[in-house]
Amino acid sequence: MLKKFSIILTALLIIGSFIFNSEAIASDKTVTVATAANVQFAMNALKDEFEKQTGIKVKPIISSSGKLTSQIMNGAPFDVFISADIEFPERLYKEGFAITKPCIYAHGLIVLWTMKDIDLSKGLNFLKEKEILKIAIANPKTAPYGKETIKILKKTNVFKDTQKKLIYGESVSQVNNYVISNTADIGFTAKSVVLSPEMKNKGKWVEVDNKLYNPIPQGIVILKHGKENNYDFSKKFYDFILSDSAKNILEKYGYIVKIDKPKK
Q: 9-107+216-252: which CATH number, 3.40.190.10, 1.10.10.10, 3.20.20.140, 3.60.15.10?
């Protein structure tokens, strides 16, 4: 009798161990995505939809495109890179840190955003006025949105008079913090930020004429780490970003979505 009980108990333990290990394996279904700060809020919606469709978890790592590129080149274990431009992914591909040629998944737009009672209908010349003390922009050396903002200021001939007013955020995310906290009177940020549920109806914003800059071609690549350690999930997420489901989400966040796949 004891022997029979022992056999049954052993069988139950084996079955239990199998179930536990299966659950553990399922819980490890995760893709780590290095995500440019301008995509931060859109990523919440993209993440939810992808997880619903596939059951694969998404772990976004948010920062400026330049900083993420540096981390990737220094061995950060990211599977996919969603950049705020195309230049950083191209660099990673050329230097062997990405296994797919960069694909443009969307074009980003720039807005001027404030929490203060400022008349935004005057055009950018009002940035010269004395009551505007601090203007937040992303660092043009590491953030494409900052680079394009400098172009805007120079094209409208206000850069010289506003240069000393500029405060630089590491990324669009830090610019947002400057604006929300009133550390800056006004800031240049991504349109996707002000259209997000988290930021909608906070403060006032106006879209910058995109003839003053180049709508920012945003790129995606599968990274070398993703190929070597997590290819199936990485490829599924990559394909999802280029799908109609993702397109619909990105358009709601103010992106111009025109997929430009690289030539093979």
A: 3.40.190.10
